[in-house]
Amino acid sequence: MDYREEIRLLREQLKEESYRYYVLDQPTLSDYEYDMLQRKLAKLEQEHPEEITPDSPTQRVGGAVLSGFESYEHRVPLESLQDVFGLDEVRDFTDRMSEALGDVSYTLEPKVDGLSIALEYRDGVFYRGATRGDGRMGEDVTENLRTIRSIPMTLPEKLPLLIVRGEVYMSKKVFRELNQQRELNEEPLFANPRNAAAGSLRQLDPKIAASRKLDAAIFNLQYAEGKSFASHEETLDYLRSQQFKMIPYKTLSDFSDISREIQRLNEEREELPFDMDGAVLKVNDLAAREKLGSTAKNPRWAVAFKYPPEKKYTKLTDIVVQVGRTGVLTPKAVLEPVRLAGTTVTNATLHNQDFISEKDIRIGDTVLVQKAGEIIPEVLSVDVKQRSGAEVPYLLPTICPVCGAPTARDPDGAAIRCTGAECGAQLLRNLTHFASRDAMDIDGLGPAVMQNLVDNGLVKTCADLYDLKAEQIATLERMGQKSAENAISAIEKSKEAGLERLLYAFGIRQIGAKAAKTIAQHFGSMEKLMQASMEDLIAIGDVGEITAQYLLTWLNSASAKDLVARLQAAGLSFECKEKMLDNRFAGKTFVFTGELTRFDRKAAEALVERMGGKASSSVSKKTAYVVAGENAGSKLQKANTLGVTVLTEEEFLAMTEAAAPAAEQPFVPDAVQETTAEAEQTSLF
Asked: One of 111, 245, 282, 614 is an active-site residue; which one?
């Protein structure tokens, strides 16, 4: 078979299976079978790079890291809806419609709590997409939208131009998993799926957006060149035929039916895969919509019914404490079960001792609770009138409830921490952080596998990971020989991660990925870092006294010295992989914008940092240079307005000549970027 035909057939098969899984929820292939087809396609495209197209399944994940988002002007404005807050207001709306139109048919659908987007297709191929913004101007987030599997890259009918409107959201299941991971890493939790979806869609790195497993559902046809429709219902049926995932709807006429459906949606909202913050009622007839028109803010032919947030009183029966990865003690309220927003709530976060003291929360109190953002239960207040005198004030313990070590309050915050270096409660979180993507990037050792390793006594410190054998991992629950071998391979590969990643992986307080990189570049090796004094550390830019003290305390601890010795014996590299080259850009900030053709943006930004400078995503008076590629937009305009020096790609390359020994090759101008789809693809299942 001709390779072109083989590529075409593979793409069609992968596209069909993706549609069946993400839209119809009826997959026909196993995870392994899908991955093998994707890998086969990626291999063919690597062998024949001229055949790679933007709509290929291998291009779903990847692309250069963006320096910012360009503006996008919506061809058809993405209007917002008028909110109504009671069934009497819904009745007022339907009465107005009947008075203006006579007999009226409506569509009613759940209002997905996500981020509104417009998708543009040209000749049946996804061309670009943008956020709603103010309804007229949004942000072009095309590369991130490409990573969303439920958005089709090609359509069955090749209209010259088709624009649809939908909602990007994070499913409840993915949201829970993401917050569980962030809790393990002691990162701030997302308040609700909408915040998580919005933050994920606006990531400048498409690979991060892809890792968040976003979804998208369509609810409106904005523009269709060469097609005409009589009703909203017809447009939705058409879009469904084009393989879009659609928001479910019902067509209704009587107010009594509308009222019942609004109430039914509220009662069954927990069964929906997405978070819902209301119900949308629209006039079905498109000609009637044209007749009614819009106000300056909203269309007259639709309203959004908003469900009031539920708040209920219940009894706080106890306060329990969890110990986090960095030893932080977090209090949690144990509640008498109460039904809120479709679920039974039995626990609520109490944040810290200051929160408890400020609200005077006591064990035995009657408290008012609600779900923050309809997701996370929180205590709003105490009903002091219900107190009997038997309520017990609460103070966080002075010894760790897990290991018995003393606890201490942070001098710079409200957190109270366990001081025990070997606290068992911190072990799983420490291990998971050590293996995480931005740390040692040990693929295959997620929280579930780590929990298995800990429970079976195979790992007690991160150094133990490097003593593991494939046969030990293979005996764990849900782990086979192949998975075990892959895990061992990933562990072995992590030995070359370098000092900057290792420092971050240790989980030292206030040493994030950026600080770890700065420190590693300054000292170059673990040997030199271990000899550093307080003065040496605070002499580094961006490292303050508190951070330096935390690092110095860790470096001088017996447990840290033992850990470093074990890791060195295991063969880990203690050298910085991204060493400083020189300081020619010290104190200077660069911004890259437009389509860069001579080099990779991420590599260029890394090179700037290795030469003492900073890379930023926004232009300000403090910006020293803007490097502009083709089709540079608002950032170039702002640079010219502020009088910032603008460089071509060639001028930037000239500034970086002889920046490093030839063997290091920080980046290769004019190099053809290899397809990395095989390595970076996200599994379908």
From this structure: 111
